[in-house]
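Suppose you are handed a protein chain with no further information: no name, no annotation, nothing but its sequence. What can you learn? This example shows the usual starting point.
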Amino acid sequence: MNNKTINQKAQFFYALFQKIPIAMRITPLFLFVLAFQLQAENIYSQDTKISLSMRNSTVEKVLQSIEEKSEYYFLYNNKLINVDRKVDVKVRNVAIYEVLDKLFDSQEVKYQVEGSQIILSPKYHLSLQIYI
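A reasonable first move is to predict its three-dimensional structure. Written in structure tokens, the prediction is:
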């Protein structure tokens, strides 16, 4: 190819590029920057390890101990969750969800981690739906 046809093609693409609005020209740059800014971060609940050694303690005392040793706090209703039950817990350097799984293994209790809150609720609860 000669220089004249290469120059004509370059001028054609430059003119085509100039017709594209500025917002559309900048968008790929922003997407590129955004893609490299996204990083996988460790979530506190995945990194938190806890050790407990409690014998014949109530579930409430175990939960209080977890609150003292971590940044978590528990939300539950005493009428729906039996926290007076006696348990033995002996764990060393395990994740918080493993302790909760062990604590509520035989119970109909589910937990949900929302930031630094752990919400305890019954697994199955009856809901009354009224249709009008």
